[in-house]
């Protein structure tokens, strides 16, 4: 079942016998319910390493460069594996220099 953030907030409001809203930020009560929904979402995401939350990114590397930025990855990133895309083998994360890598990470 696919639903929206607003639909979930309105479901909670209905169960609390409150009026539904057209926008989550419509009033302080709906904002609070939205915060609780976000808290519950984060708890569920943190409870397991959900494969549905994983994505793969290609990071071209340059020799003698030791730090790379995973743009748009968010603040809660977890790197699961690093693959040498040229030779197709897993390598330790600390050996990133000079290779084009596929990095699989969890976006929460």
What does this structure look like?
The protein has 2 domains: 42 residues, no CATH class; 57 residues, no CATH class. Helix 1 crosses helix 2. The chain has 2 helices and 4 strands, in the order ααββββ. With 108 residues, it is α+β, with helices and mostly antiparallel strands. A hairpin with a 4-residue loop joins strand 2 and strand 3. The chain has a 4-stranded antiparallel beta sheet, with no helix packed on it. The chain is elongated, with a radius of gyration of 20 Å.
List keywords for this structure.
single chain; 108 residues; alpha+beta; 4-stranded antiparallel sheet; 28% helix; disordered C terminus
Q: What would you call the shape? A: elongated
Low-confidence regions: 96-102, 104-108
Structural class based on helices, strands and sheet pairing? alpha+beta
Please indicate the percent range of residues in DSSP E strands (runs of 2 or more). Answer: 15-25%
Count of discrete domains: 2
How many whole angstroms does the radius of gyration measure?
20 Å
Outline the biggest β-sheet. 4 strands, antiparallel
Instruction: Give the proportion of residues in helices.
Output: 25-40%
Count of DSSP H/I helices: 2
Number of E-type strands: 4
Order of helices and strands: HHEEEE
Mean pLDDT, to the nearest integer, reads 79
The first-to-last residue Cα distance is 20 Å
Strand line-up in the sheet with most strands: 1-4-2-3
